[in-house]
């Protein structure tokens, strides 16, 4: 189901973002494309909410709590809705009664979803020149939130059911208001899983009040991560001087050949449009067709870009077949997947994928990933020509050695002082041998592979929700600067880490 929803989203967001980069667009065309982008992002949000509810009901809730100054968090939350409120002359105000330094253990992402839904609904139904208020107080050991509007209110016949999934009002006057019946249902599921309660009171013509009660797990403000507003104090983030690395080799001639394995014809068309013209593309419909092509090809592709969900033979099965072949094993493989779960990513890496991209994706993200993979391949080929591997060194042995290297480095990535000498010592080889083996087997320098592993670990921490703060992610992988991590992340993955947080 995730695949069927995310593939069309890719074919909305991807082409729109690509077209918006056209400098020859008329003002009207750009305006229409921006509207399409906004609505596509809204559709993506709805899809994510449906999947969140399904996951919540199937596996429960994994809270990622961290000490948070509640006042700062709420001001940050309201700021995201300020422009919408001002466009309709609505006064959006925060009425905060507790101590401004009151610090709680909160899962910010989940609380943001809850409050964001309540505020969105309040602004949707509030008339122009009215007030929407978020009221907060400390009450009997709980944190009590109220979101109040001056809208038309909720009819008594509808009020008992507004938190039911997919509920639609039966009132004829409410039909034009729309709504999916998803947001409030998700909010209630999240609140209940967090040990709280959510309910509403309303009178037609008098507005509505939504009440949210959560257990107040107080923490010391000393260890709280402050949420910055406006200018950031000097010294909070800093960029250490990083050791220079050797210039990266350019992709060498002849023209890079890409094999695209994708069954969706619209996505095939999109990929042909956004991939640089200097690539030679061959497109097949599924994994079995890909293997047939490889078996008869006079020249093997330099990279394979494959979807996961396909008929006859899916991307995982194709990847397994490639890694079992001595001739095909060295070909870099990038997976396009709508399966965003950690188990699916782990399965792909265990089989031997070089990279994966989660749908929906942008043209920039895809091209950056391909360029990185081809650059590493070109460097490895260059080293193989000057220092060929030993005859007994099979592709399987190379994979085993690289896996050992990754696991050894992974155990030490949290140490910012971890360097090439440490890695060589833990691998039981000299620094010189380590440099040579990494160049031959991965096409990277030793410093580059440590950086690569730090970035892969950072991506995993972000995508699995283990951290919701970029500074903490940077520290966890041995990069003490969030700014530096953000720059490296964009260069490596073609997007900002904030897109995955």
Task: Summarize the SSE layout with pairings.
Layout: H1 2-20, H2 27-59, E1 66-69, H3 70-79, H4 82-87, E2 91-96, E3 103-106, H5 108-125, E4 131-139, E5 142-148, H6 183-193, E6 197-203, E7 207-215, E8 257-261, H7 265-274, E9 280-284, H8 287-296, E10 303-307, H9 315-323, E11 333-337, H10 342-351, E12 355-358, H11 363-386, H12 395-410, H13 420-427, H14 431-442, H15 446-463, H16 470-476, H17 482-493
Parallel strand pairs: 2-4, 8-9, 8-10, 10-11, 11-12
Antiparallel strand pairs: 1-3, 4-5, 5-7, 6-7
Helix pairs in contact: 1-2, 1-7, 2-6, 5-6, 8-9, 11-14, 16-17
Give your account of this protein's structure.
- This protein is α/β, with parallel strands linked by helices.
- It has 17 helices and 12 strands.
- It has helices at 2-20, 27-59, 70-79, 82-87, 108-125, 183-193, 265-274, 287-296, 315-323, 342-351, 363-386, 395-410, 420-427, 431-442, 446-463, 470-476, 482-493; strands spanning 66-69, 91-96, 103-106, 131-139, 142-148, 197-203, 207-215, 257-261, 280-284, 303-307, 333-337, 355-358.
- It has a 5-stranded mixed β-sheet. Strands 9-8-10-11-12 form a 5-stranded parallel β-sheet, sandwiched between helices.
- Strand 4 and strand 5 (142-148) form a beta hairpin.
- Helix 1 packs antiparallel against helix 2 (27-59).
- The chain is globular, with a radius of gyration of 26 Å.
- The two termini are 23 Å apart.
- 29% of the residues are buried.
Q: What's the short version?
A:
This protein is of the alpha/beta class and 501 residues long.
Key traits:
five-stranded mixed β-sheet, 17 helices, 501 residues, globular, alpha/beta, single chain
């Amino acid at each position: 189901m995730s695949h069927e929803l995310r593939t069309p989203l890719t074919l909305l967001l991807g082409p729109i973002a690509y077209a918006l980069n056209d400098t020859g667009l008329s003002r009207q065309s750009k305006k229409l494309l921006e509207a399409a982008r906004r609505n596509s992002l809204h559709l993506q949000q709805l899809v994510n909410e449906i999947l969140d509810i399904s996951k919540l009901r199937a596996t429960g809730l994994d809270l990622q709590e961290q000490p948070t100054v509640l006042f700062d968090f709420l001001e940050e939350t309201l700021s995201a809705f300020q422009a919408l409120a001002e466009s309709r002359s609505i006064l959006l105000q925060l009425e905060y009664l507790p101590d401004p330094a009151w610090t709680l253990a909160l899962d910010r992402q989940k609380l943001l979803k809850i409050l964001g839904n309540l505020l969105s609904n309040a602004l949707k139904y509030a008339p122009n020149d009215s007030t929407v208020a978020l009221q907060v107080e400390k009450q009997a050991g709980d944190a009590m939130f109220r979101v109040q509007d001056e809208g038309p209110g909720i009819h008594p016949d509808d009020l008992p059911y507004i938190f039911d999934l997919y509920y639609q009002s039966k009132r004829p006057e409410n039909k034009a208001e729309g709504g999916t019946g998803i947001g409030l249902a998700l909010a209630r599921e999240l609140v209940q899983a967090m040990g709280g309660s959510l309910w509403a009171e309303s009178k037609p013509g008098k507005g509505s009040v939504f009440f949210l009660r959560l257990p107040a797990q107080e923490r010391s403000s000393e260890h709280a991560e402050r949420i910055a507003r406006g200018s950031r104090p000097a010294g909070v983030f800093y960029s250490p001087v990083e050791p220079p690395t050797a210039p990266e080799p350019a992709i060498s001639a002849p023209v890079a050949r890409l094999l695209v394995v994708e069954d969706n014809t619209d996505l095939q068309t999109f990929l042909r449009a956004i991939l640089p013209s200097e690539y030679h593309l061959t497109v097949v419909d599924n994994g079995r067709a890909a293997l047939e092509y490889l078996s008869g090809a006079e020249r093997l592709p330099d990279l394979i870009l494959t979807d996961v969900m396909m008929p006859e033979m899916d991307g995982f099965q194709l990847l397994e077949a490639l890694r079992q072949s001595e001739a095909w094993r060295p070909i870099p493989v990038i997976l396009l997947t709508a399966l965003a779960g950690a188990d699916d990513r782990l399965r792909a890496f265990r089989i031997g994928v070089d990279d994966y991209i989660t749908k929906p994706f942008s043209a920039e993200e895809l091209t950056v990933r391909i360029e990185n993979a081809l650059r590493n391949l070109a460097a490895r080929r260059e080293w193989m020509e000057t220092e060929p591997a030993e005859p007994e060194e099979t592709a399987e042995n190379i994979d085993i050695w690289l896996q050992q290297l990754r696991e050894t480095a992974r155990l030490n990535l949290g140490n910012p002082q971890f360097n090439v000498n440490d890695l060589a010592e833990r691998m039981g080889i000299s620094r010189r041998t380590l440099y040579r083996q990494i160049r031959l087997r991965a096409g990277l320098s030793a410093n580059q592979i440590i950086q690569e592993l730090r970035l892969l670990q950072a991506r995993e921490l972000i995508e699995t929700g283990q951290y919701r703060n970029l500074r903490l992610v940077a520290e966890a992988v041995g990069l003490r600067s969030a700014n530096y991590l953000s720059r490296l992340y964009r260069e490596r993955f073609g997007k900002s880490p904030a897109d995955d947080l």
